[in-house]
């Protein structure tokens, strides 16, 4: 771990610590379950000591230790905590469960967790449960009910200065590479915490800013990952919260957080096709990060990459290429050897060349990405599936159908293994394979896959959604190619109306559907 990477981890942990502190303070007097994930004993103790000191003047803080033989969360708290008005419980001891052949105690722990919802309702206090990542990774499967109603998850990444010589870290490091996302919250917890924070500190305090930022980021992630239940409403909320965070971050000169919020708001506009609104925000975030980090830094590389993506989608290929190359070179300097960020930059550059028809330049990059992701992620992994899919798209675009088909099939099967049931990536693979068969004139095979993809997207996204509009458009294209104009037209009309409602009239996807409909109607009038 180089000094830059360790400093980035320290900065991320400081933000996570602040988020935990604000969430706990805002949750006093309510039952709030917070999960804190940390793998180093010294690091855990330092964090707890810090927030105990900050909270002590106005709160009654209890360290609660789980019984290794009967690790019941409720039993430990009710036996060791006096139920006062300002109580906060810190639960320790889970880090020893499952080690040194204590598998039976770990099973009991999960069993108690699974059935704590009703048992804990009487405890009107924030509860911070400290666990190592090896236990955290098992909770969704072993205690799904507990997982579904926990309030927030705070990941503290290992810091070099705090893990050297710490034997407790060694068994857990291999399990956390996919869990370094920082803090993970439920909307209900954040909204409740925000309401209490506004009441306690006011709408314009530095502590409230943290919650605005978290809510804006969470709503943005939900919209981008297709988890939102009401996309339009959550888009509006994401924008409002991010804008409030930006105002307060500017006021309190929290420049690193401000750059992140500017970037996140730009992402929100970008995903709506509002490129003219996204560009100045991306530029501001990039300039700010360059001032904050005078040397190479992952955040600067990320800003370069995001601005390049914007120009790429606007068809400004020469501007995009320069930025993609800058991001790639910076990431190679930051992360020598294989690294997901390097693979991402290679992939984006390949996509740029692919979209320009520079297939001979795109292919070796796609192959490099595929090999790198296979080395980085043994077995099935979403990045590997995406790499297979992108290489297949390249061959498809070149008319190399026999080379594209097995890659599409491999990507589809891997995604089905990774994501049981309905999932956006699976629907994407079904659409791509259908498009290949459509290109080959295998219309009956293509129709079945397009229909499967359409039904899956409708189940995934109730009501209007861009992916549903895209699936309607794809099926309409198939019918048009077959001369089934009367079946294609209503699908195009539905796709256009939905795309306009969800993305706006000027989004590139909407323009594509509108052009497709116009061409169809021209064909119909010429008959």
From TrEMBL:
Domain of life: Bacteria
TPR repeat start and end residues: 259-292, 301-334, 385-418, 427-460, 469-502
Any one GO molecular function term: kinesin binding
InterPro entries attached to this UniProt entry: Kinesin_light, TPR-like_helical_dom_sf, TPR_rpt
GO biological process, one term: microtubule-based movement
Protein name (Swiss-Prot/TrEMBL): Uncharacterized protein
Sequence similarity: Belongs to the kinesin light chain family.
Pfam families, per database record: TPR_10 (PF13374), TPR_12 (PF13424), TPR_7 (PF13176)
Keyword annotations of the record: Coiled coil, Cytoplasm, Cytoskeleton, Microtubule, Motor protein, Repeat, TPR repeat
PANTHER family reported in the protein's UniProt record: KINESIN LIGHT CHAIN
Highest classification ranks of the organism: Bacteria, Bacillati, Cyanobacteriota, Cyanophyceae, Nostocales
Gene Ontology CC terms: cytoplasm; kinesin complex; microtubule
Broad class of where this protein is predominantly found: cytoplasm
Localization in the cell: Cytoplasm, Cytoskeleton
